[in-house]
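Cont'd.
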Amino acid sequence: MKIFKYPEESNLKRILTRPVLDNDGIKNTVIDILQQIRKNGDTALRTLTKNIDGIELNDFQVTANEIDAAESMLSEPLKKAIRQAAQNIKAFHNSQIVFEKRIETMPGVICWRKNVPIQKVGLYIPGGSAPLFSTVLMLALPAQLAGCPEIILVSPPDKKSNLHPAILCAAKISGATGIFKAGGAQAIAALAYGTESIPKVDKIFGPGNRYVTFAKQLVQSEGTAIDMPAGPSEVAVLADEFADAGFVASDLLAQAEHGPDSQVFLFTDSATLIEKVSKETDRQLASLPRAEIAAKALQNSASILLKSLPEAVDAINRYAPEHLIINTKDAHILAEQIVNAGSVFIGPFSSEACGDYASGTNHTLPTNGFANSYSGVSMDSYFKKITFQEITHEGLKKIGPIVEIMAEAEQLQAHKNSVSIRLNFCGPEAALLRP
Amino acid sequence: MKIFKYPEESNLKRILTRPVLDNDGIKNTVIDILQQIRKNGDTALRTLTKNIDGIELNDFQVTANEIDAAESMLSEPLKKAIRQAAQNIKAFHNSQIVFEKRIETMPGVICWRKNVPIQKVGLYIPGGSAPLFSTVLMLALPAQLAGCPEIILVSPPDKKSNLHPAILCAAKISGATGIFKAGGAQAIAALAYGTESIPKVDKIFGPGNRYVTFAKQLVQSEGTAIDMPAGPSEVAVLADEFADAGFVASDLLAQAEHGPDSQVFLFTDSATLIEKVSKETDRQLASLPRAEIAAKALQNSASILLKSLPEAVDAINRYAPEHLIINTKDAHILAEQIVNAGSVFIGPFSSEACGDYASGTNHTLPTNGFANSYSGVSMDSYFKKITFQEITHEGLKKIGPIVEIMAEAEQLQAHKNSVSIRLNFCGPEAALLRP
């Protein structure tokens, strides 16, 4: 980790600027994959899975037998942990479902909103060395709570054509209605266009490698909604002289082990802390299985010494981190001043890992500075909020003249007419329903 | 309007398929405009405004004097109407601001969300023949209610380099913090990248022509958030034999006058109604100032006769209209079955025009089928919902072991360590804050 002491404005700006994500190198490959799936569906998916992943698949859908068998392959403690995490995630997400009141904005003019679940959602769960079953919980449980009728999960199979039992187990707990073996840009294309096996969905969720995230970006521009734009994972730790350097180092490393392009920042007003954290990071890094990855990530990372904590808060708001850990005295007061962050962890014992797995908050969060305008995945991500209104004849007599004046000023005569014709209606309202 | 009677499945599918929006013809122009603004800021904006719009501008920002003068140029009834509409819009949008409770998912594990306003929002108000001051209210009032510190409004000036007084008046009422004369793709670029005059914003809202909406799509893929993808405006009317044909025709025409690419559909189970509406539409069309535009839109439009109202509801849910007017007996019961629509108007007197201007609901809604996954603009569009959590030492003792098991199963040892190191901490919690 680089160390910057009291950087000047221009230097700070440079430090906080993220590397530009360049998709030029993979653009044509991904466009080609999308076209193949759109044109040839399952056949193309089968060919691409063979050519790219070296796996020959007959059927893409995971069978009920496979799902049932998965449960017996997990240890009891892991199953218990998954169930407890699911319970916490449900409790927190359930609290986000709010029923708003009907508002009578003028007498006889009644407006309201209703949460309606997106009918078909697609969830991408990355493969790779480890089974990311926590992401299954984070994406499928809110879909289940929202009442989405179709919850389609796709994930790349291993070399034996299987999905990991922890993924299947989490998917079952979370109410996935269809589980398919498919990965990469071709899986995103299958969800966006539909194939003979995999249903077309309305919205696609989930993290992935560059091919996956670029494919999501492309299908979004064609009209399929996605959860949010993607970027490498990141954490900012705001700490003062009172913070335990071992805790801080462990948080930085937990983020750094995600991938070589992860970014971690320590913001502090204590030069002593930087020194201690630096030593602790080296010490803890040495024994990590993913030390090589973490070490690479630390090369993109920095400790930044600032004159005061308010100055550090200001820098953090400019950076807009995905995760922010505030490990200082009076952490609550500083947390109140955060305007740009995905998720905030307050106090010495709130390790980010708790939020990644089990505390109840969602771990799908805006990275790459998108926290300035995007929220993490929540119940809001699975609902459309449809507005409704009902205006009575009496109500129209109140609001109609206002609409007529405004429509006329916007030179939209037919808009005005649609009100006037109703204002001129002089029969009893009931006459409209019994002609 | 074409008439389709009891169409078969394959035919219905074709009827409900929207024309594909093709941006190929304008792609290079828009990309070039974006690059010019990014590179040369105000200078490029000045040149483009001169070359494209034929207007020479010295200053882009509207002065306080111009804004103050605007008010005196509007009629009292119009000012009064705007103020009443603003009050209704505020009342309904204010009801959407909900404070969620803190949730203790396990003892000592506390999670909550907080609404934080997006710090800088940019609002595009189209120019053209009429001043769309209602869009100013719809986009700026929620930003003001959310507490967005910077609310930047851009709109193309007229040939005398002025913005219409109704736009300025609505902008003042709605708390815009900066108003700029700029239009087209160049205005979107200015908001996305910033120029010497126009501040860079975090999120861009507002309708526009093909250049504007394609520019929004491009800057979104570069990282600036936008309100939603765009498409031509549209309405579906669901009506039965009890509906007044004049009302129905007036609603169809109000939508049709928006633009030649607007689309209107009548879904009904009554052949008689289709006949009556057809005659009424012809009659009302004849006297419209925008008859030519409306007539073109009606060419893309259709009346669809179905066997029953439930069948019609099913077709509407497949189409996912931006606006839906339900003008039937028992309209409420049918409204309950709608899962894909932007905004729903219930009953004979709920004309869409009321929602366009003054009832309180937002008129910025998902078109082009996006209502299957997007909501209209609401308070949610101006907030980030940041999650927070605080875990006590006691809380960590409960949740920590769960996180350790899950992190280990995902082979993320550093995640596990960040919990273990805290669980192994045996001093009193206070020691961390007074070393």
